[in-house]
Automatic annotation (TrEMBL):
Example of a GO MF term: ATP binding
Organism: Thiobaca trueperi
Protein name: Probable ATP-binding protein YheS
Pfam families according to UniProt: ABC_tran, ABC_tran_Xtn
Family label: Belongs to the ABC transporter superfamily. ABCF family. YheS subfamily.
ABC transporter domain boundaries: 2-246, 313-528
CDD domains per the UniProt record, alphabetical: ABCF_EF-3
Domain of life: Bacteria
Record's keyword annotation contains Signal: no
Amino acid sequence: MLQLKDLSFRRGPNLLLEGATLTVYPGQKAGLVGANGCGKSSLFALLLGDLHADAGEVAIPVGWEIAHVAQHTPDTDRAAIEFVLDGDRELRQIQAELAEADAAGDGLRHGELLGRFESIGGYDAESRAARLLHGLGFAPGDERRAVNSYSGGWRMRLALARTLMCRSDLLLLDEPTNHLDLDAVIWLEGWLKSYPGTLVLISHDRDFLDAVATHILHLEHQHLTLYAGNYSGFERQRAERLAQQQSAFVRQQREIAHMHSFVERFRAKASKARQAQSRLKALERMELIAPAHVDSPFRFGFESAENLPHPLLRLDEAAAGYGERPILSGVRLSLDPGDRIGLLGRNGAGKSTLIKVLAGDLSLLSGRCERAQDLRVGYFAQHQLDQLHRDDTPLGHLRRVDPGATEQTLRSYLGGFGFAGDRALDPVAPLSGGEKARLVLALLIRQRPNLLLLDEPTNHLDLEMRHALSEALQGFDGALVLVSHDRHLLRVTSDTLLLVDGGGVRPFDGDLDDYPAWLAASERESRQTNEGDTARESGDRRQQRRQAAESRKALQPLRNREKQLEQRMETLTARRAALEEALAAPDLYEPDGKTRLLALLAEQRQVGADLTATEDAWIEVSEAIEQFQSDV
């Protein structure tokens, strides 16, 4: 069992955990939740032995195999499947010993090792690794590609597959659904539910936590509390505890009334369509969980749009793609105020392409796109985080959007997005990915759009911000089109589901709970088609190799930049670790150490800002590579 005994630790001068005592038993699956920056990742580092406690201890059974996802994937030309197989350390050790026994001509030793090899499933290991890769979205044949031929997002999937390959006793996963599409999230959820070991999982995806977690570890105000049940159960227990505080109870009643108004408004207009009924149930559930979020730091909403023309936008026989190759064709779509559309479909099917067409960022290859004269588009995508002005402040960004508002009005507005007080005056450069995403959303909402296009808006957002966003979207009176792997957000915001598949866009026959069955059926059909096409495809391999060579040549500058940024991140990460170790020295906090302490703290802030900027640049380059690969 995993035990914490009166555990306390700090990072530099900041106390993150104090006096934690709890036990996680074998086979339990604990979701670790808490606000961004509260110390969740630091607790993982402590469990891995990368940090040391200031008091108390962590007790992990001797001999337990611990698996976690490495922060960086090495730049190697080894085949992806070989990289994943490395995750099973015992397998690799036995294979090495078999080679030694062969070289020494030791038949007896060779026979013993073969027995061990069979007992750990060595003969099925490659098949197991291929299934992991396929589940995480890799196409057949991709397992033989070199690791360094993949973009940053796909290398993260490789690192996750390698971690799952380990036959571990304790599995530590920190935001494993980031950079996964909905298909891969659904697969990972099923895999983790059947995982026999002990799991500690950091996630901001409530549906994922509900499906996987048997317990919730809540880190708040330097205290760690273990709750039995999944995330929804934790919310109910926390709401009951908060209700014992009179001030919180009053706020809870306001939140319940606020959500109740949305539920009743939607109930009056909800059709009998399965997804509309699914959304109604999700809203009713939100009404029940509202009391658990009364102490959230995030409070914001959409003001009414100035104009709501009908229709806002219409596509007629539209075809879109990159170069001359269409990804989508024959698309007919009309968007009116009040429409709530969630897009489903496999990675690379064209969901983001459709969003870009609607946003006006991608021209049609053919067909028509008619836009209302008063159309105002609010478009959120991950690349916009990198378009923020690094040296400017949140207040400065907002002032450009709304120059006529008073400073107090703008600062009050920013406070609802977590930029209260002097945080509104801090430069953007050192902000985390989640903070930048909150700022982009704040700027977007302030522009009062009547068409809202959200492409994976919850990446980097914690649970409280996701809840605030899902609640705010209930009051939006324009049209919404959403791409997200966060099923909870899809449930509470989407009345209509459209499936992007096979180059077309069509209504999805069912609700979100039917989508996994569609995926499974589609997968079976795809396998049958692939088997039938094998002979024909063999004649196209020369052409494919030529195209692959051309793609590699075009990608080389991006690859070189990605490698430079990875080396820079490794250097900065090492320096940050050295600074944290130096800051742990007790003599620094004596009067004579003040000068050196201030110097180290200043360098720590600078290194942190440089690391954040480098990570952001790496994500931008990785996404550019990934977009290029999905488009060819």
